[in-house]
């Protein structure tokens, strides 16, 4: 059955030369955005799977240079890991405030999450600068090339996440917790927790196993 509905003409009016179409219902399918975002996250999983596989193959090719045991500062990385995992908790608090329809509380916890994310990026950039200053840049060996690529790609995702978070804070301030903003905050929540999960893998596979003899 066609969705086209013929317009009702007043008595004595001439019919229009062009038909008028009416599309009933909502254009945006229910949960369509969340489903599409899950598909995106699965594609991102493939990217990181390739990077992890590359590091697994090249992670012991030191080219007579320093190894992870010589370079990695585990206490610093542990602090960095704590910042990112804590930011996942604070984002959860933001989602709870959103469900209670509290704009102020949502904005507060989003801001705390962004600050923790910036702290994570700051320590990661400090680590990169320190390694390069020691002459352990990505061009030094295959091990360092794969290390910088994997960790740097994750850091780039965190950067995009912070930009997205700031954008959402502006949107919530301007329009409140409308359904569209709630849906976008849900997508950002999945993205942020996904980054935490990837970092747990990086911390275990790269740093902890990297310091083993």
UniProtKB/TrEMBL annotation:
Q: What topology does it adopt in the membrane?
A: Multi-pass membrane protein
Show which residues constitute the signal peptide: none
Q: Which UniProt keywords apply?
A: Cell membrane, Electron transport, Membrane, Oxidoreductase, Transmembrane, Transmembrane helix, Transport
Q: Which GO terms describe its molecular function?
A: cytochrome bo3 ubiquinol oxidase activity; cytochrome-c oxidase activity
Could you provide one GO biological process annotation from this protein's UniProt record?
Answer: aerobic electron transport chain
Q: Enumerate the transmembrane spans.
A: 37-57, 77-96, 108-126, 146-170, 191-212
Source taxon at top rank: Bacteria
Domain Heme-copper oxidase subunit III family profile, by residue range, is 30-211
> What is the annotated localization of this protein?
Cell membrane
InterPro entries assigned to the protein according to its UniProt record, in alphabetical order:
Cyt_c/ubiquinol_Oxase_su3, Cyt_c_oxidase-like_su3, Cyt_c_oxidase_su3-like_sf, Cyt_c_oxidase_su3_a-hlx, Cyt_c_ubiqinol_oxidase_su3, Ubiquinol_oxase_su3_dom
In terms of Pfam families, this protein maps to:
COX3 (PF00510)
- Offer a single GO CC term for the protein: plasma membrane
Q: Which family does it belong to?
A: Belongs to the cytochrome c oxidase subunit 3 family.
Task: State the function annotated in the UniProt record.
Answer: Cytochrome bo(3) ubiquinol terminal oxidase is the component of the aerobic respiratory chain of E.coli that predominates when cells are grown at high aeration. Has proton pump activity across the membrane in addition to electron transfer, pumping 2 protons/electron.
Cite the record's note on assembly: Heterooctamer of two A chains, two B chains, two C chains and two D chains.
- Could you identify this protein by its name? Cytochrome bo(3) ubiquinol oxidase subunit 3
Q: Name the gene behind this protein.
A: cyoC
């Amino acid at each position: 059955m066609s969705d086209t509905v013929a317009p009702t003409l007043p008595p004595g009016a001439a019919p229009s030369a062009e038909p008028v179409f009416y599309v009933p219902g909502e254009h945006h399918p229910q949960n369509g955005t969340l489903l599409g975002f899950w598909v995106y996250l699965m594609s991102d999983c493939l990217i990181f799977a390739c990077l992890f596989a590359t590091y697994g193959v090249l992670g012991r090719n030191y080219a007579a240079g320093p190894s992870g045991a010589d370079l990695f500062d585990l206490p610093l990385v542990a602090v960095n890991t704590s910042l990112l995992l804590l930011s996942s908790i604070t984002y959860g608090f933001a989602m709870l405030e959103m469900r209670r329809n509290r704009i102020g509380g949502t904005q507060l916890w989003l801001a705390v999450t962004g600050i923790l994310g910036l702290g994570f990026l700051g320590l990661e950039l400090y680590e990169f600068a320190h390694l390069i200053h020691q002459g352990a840049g990505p061009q030094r060996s295959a091990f360092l090339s794969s290390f910088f690529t994997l960790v740097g790609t994750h850091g780039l995702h965190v950067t995009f996440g912070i930009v997205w978070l700031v954008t959402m804070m502006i949107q919530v301030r301007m329009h409140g917790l409308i359904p569209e903003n709630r849906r976008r905050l849900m997508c950002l929540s999945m993205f942020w927790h996904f980054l935490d999960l990837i970092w747990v893998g990086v911390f275990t596979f790269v740093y902890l196993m990297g310091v083993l003899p």
